[in-house]
């Protein structure tokens, strides 16, 4: 299934690079657009739309369920299919804009990281905002020698009530165990993005443009 997307052209000249955005569960492809130009107005942004409709404008990359104990569960095959679909979309974008950067929030962060693990040759780096490792369990990934040194900016809120900080730290440990180069940040925030996070991400990003 080909994913829908919207494009935000650069607001300033001087750079020919693309940032691919992957929204969180229950959001849509417009949700992260303001972040793109906050990071660098010279970037072209392409925001992908999750393939699962949740009602109204709300979208997701795969469905989430809550069991009797309140734990969030999901179908691993659906998560793998979502990563493959996003990978195909990134591959198509990279054909005309080589080595794009990926940015995802929450569920979208897991998808962005999954794309990088599967095809590290496609992207120049990943920004993971409030992402976790659960969706990456049992996912296919490239050989470790191809993953070694792949750059990741990962950040999480210390007070996140939806995805506790321990889950973010698990993501960091998982990626570092695979040899990725993770710059890790923790902030006094809930399940959100704050200006300090954007500023740190901007600095990380500028070193790779």
Q: What would you note in describing this structure?
A:
This protein has about 210 residues and is α/β, with parallel strands linked by helices. It has a single domain (about 5-205), classed as Alpha/Beta hydrolase fold, catalytic domain (Rossmann fold, 3-Layer(aba) Sandwich). It is about 35% helix and about 25% strand. A hairpin with a 2-residue loop joins β4 (about 50-55) and β5. α2 crosses α3.
Topology readout:
Layout: E1 5-8, E2 18-22, H1 33-39, E3 44-48, E4 52-55, E5 58-60, E6 65-66, E7 72-73, H2 76-96, E8 101-105, H3 107-118, E9 125-129, H4 144-147, E10 151-157, H5 165-177, E11 181-187, H6 195-206
Parallel strand pairs: 2-3, 2-8, 8-9, 9-10, 10-11
Antiparallel strand pairs: 1-3, 4-5, 6-7
Helix pairs in contact: 2-3
């Amino acid at each position: 299934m080909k994913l829908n997307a919207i494009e935000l052209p650069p607001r300033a000249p001087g750079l020919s690079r693309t940032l691919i955005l992957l929204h969180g569960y229950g959001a849509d492809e417009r949700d992260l657009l303001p972040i793109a130009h906050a990071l660098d107005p010279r970037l072209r942004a392409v925001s992908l739309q999750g393939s699962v409709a949740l009602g109204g404008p709300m979208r997701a990359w795969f469905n989430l369920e809550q069991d009797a104990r309140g734990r969030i569960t999901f179908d691993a095959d659906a998560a793998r299919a979502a990563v493959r679909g996003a990978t195909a979309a990134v591959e198509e974008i990279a054909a005309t804009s080589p080595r794009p950067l990926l940015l995802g929030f929450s569920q979208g962060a897991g998808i962005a990281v999954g794309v990088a693990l599967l095809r590290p040759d496609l992207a120049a780096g990943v920004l993971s905002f409030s992402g976790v490792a659960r969706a990456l369990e049992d996912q296919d990934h490239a050989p470790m020698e191809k993953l070694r040194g792949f750059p990741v900016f990962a950040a999480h809120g210390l007070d996140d009530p939806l995805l506790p900080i321990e889950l973010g730290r698990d993501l960091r440990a998982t990626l570092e165990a695979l040899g990725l180069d993770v710059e890790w940040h923790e902030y006094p925030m809930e399940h959100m993005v704050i200006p300090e996070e954007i500023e740190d991400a901007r600095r990380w990003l500028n070193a790779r443009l």
